[in-house]
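Q: Protein A?
A:
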Amino acid sequence: MKYLYLHGLGQNAGSWNKVIEATEVLDHSVCLDLSEMVKGKAVTYSTLYSAFVELCAAENEEIILCGLSLGGVLALNYAIDYPQKVKALVLIAAQYKMPKRLLKLQNALFRFMPQSMFQQTGFGKLDFISLCDSMVELDFSGSLNQVSCPVLVVCGEKDKANKRASIELADIMKHSQFKEIPRTGHEVNLESPEELASLLRKFYKSI
């Protein structure tokens, strides 16, 4: 069994370190670096997802996907397209239908931010803008029933922008459960790594 972790936009592979150390599956876990997956290519959702599909295809074992925000969108997309490959799915603060107004507002803010604010993520300022622009039309509403594996949906109590979508996901999808982490915002893996790891340990043992 291989556990693949996908970080959110604005994070990097190291954002999962504290969580994975506490999950008891460290030897079988891989933290993917999304920026490395599209290095030298146009940074759009399509190119990122295609690179992720290729990476998963190279795995001979069943995989468990755990993604936050953008990483959750990629994981959900893959579980819809390749249900036979995914043993279980963890979606953290993930949207299944992109909030267009929020993405456009986010991109407007990115345009005013200095380049230095993006350096630690591996993506440049224009990459952020291009990626968000390319995601605006994403909508998996009609395909959620294609996910057949157990699903854990997680959201921070203070993550107002994503809580409603998380609850809806858990209601719509088969074999799914919703867990809220108290006193926590959007970046659950950074803000409450031990609490998240506790949820993951219980979920992994149940599948």
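Q: Protein B?
A:
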Amino acid sequence: MVKVLPSLLASDFLNLESEMKRMEEAGADIFHLDIMDGQFVPNISYGIPVCEAISKKTNIPLDVHLMTEDPEQFVEEFRDMGVDYLSFHIEATPHAHRLITHIQNNNMKAGIVLNPQTPVKDVEYLLDIVDFVLVMTVNPGFGGQSFIESGVKKIAELDSIRTRENYDYLIEVDGGVNDETARVCREAGADLLVSGSYLFKADNTKETIDKLRG
């Protein structure tokens, strides 16, 4: 079954603990945390202390998406706070294969991220070792953007490669995910759906998660 990942970037930061509890009670599977450094993307989000606080207030898995330069520097810190999934952008490091192995050796699932401009072929050499691929269906850096339709082709391509080569990576999608785009992504082969503004602004959170999950 498809899993739903609330993106905490879209939450009310002044009431973060209650927002997390609301999502947990509605059936959220994993919390998604976007880490931005203002360099790799033109925005700054929350840092290590906030992530540590989040990790102490939930028992569901944490999925950290590094939108940073030099992503290697953060692996041990996220391991120590119990993060389960850790992904980085192929453009952020010249040593992607080594970083994936390093993340896995630190007992986390390793993911590679595809920006809207990044073709699947740029990461195809990693697909036999990576645990998941995160397809961005918006340009990273800000929430509330519109879904970029070309991302669906990448999802389908990744699903086709996975089937053909008998790989077992998961396909995650982040950006503009609502009940309509979620359906298209599921049909293309997505396993994990990140939703921010659409989910946190919903009147009925449980019903919305159920719709996303399909």
